[in-house]
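Supplementary notes for students who missed Thursday's class. We covered one full example, reproduced here. Read the sequence, then the structure, then the short commentary at the end.
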Amino acid sequence: AIYCNGANFSVVNCSFVNCSAMTGGGGAIYCNGANFSVVNCSFFICVAVFTNGGAIYSGGVNSSVVNCSFVTCSARRGGGGIFCGGVNSSVVNCSFVDFGGGAIHCSGANCVINYNIFDNDPVKYNNGNIIYTENNIDCDFNFFSFENNITSFPKGLVIGSTVNNWVVLNITKDNDKYSVDFVCNDGSPLTKSMRD
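Structure (token representation):
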């Protein structure tokens, strides 16, 4: 749908439905330029058939994806929702539902993944964990999760990074009643409301 190779490019308040890429990645958006942002957009059934980034492929520096939703997006090689290949990437306050190939794949340094919702990963293709990072890059994470009884960092949630800062909102269902509690790695209080 969108191909961008220049700098200072933004996509705002858009919807992408049934988009695909055979090569190059980014079923809906492919951007290889610097200072790239996607804000308040929705992606439904977006696929990278043979590559990375089912909905978004970002290869440049300083990219951000904020307040977006990804439903039934998949990628053959990783990043069913988003592939971030450049330095200084952030994914904030987004939701990922029914994704294949993992929700997010980061291969560049300085990645921030905060206040996102991940639900229903069918592990369709490679790198089927929720987040896959390469080369032990520096990452900060805050999660909203439907995992039960979390006492340590959820296995399979992130592959490829040492995770030092994280918080999980743990929702447990028992006889149609839900209980909610926070699990933090260092006991620190939650400082931001998830899904403002």
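Commentary. The first strand starts at residue 2 and ends at 4. The chain has a mean pLDDT of 75. If anything here is unclear, bring it to office hours.
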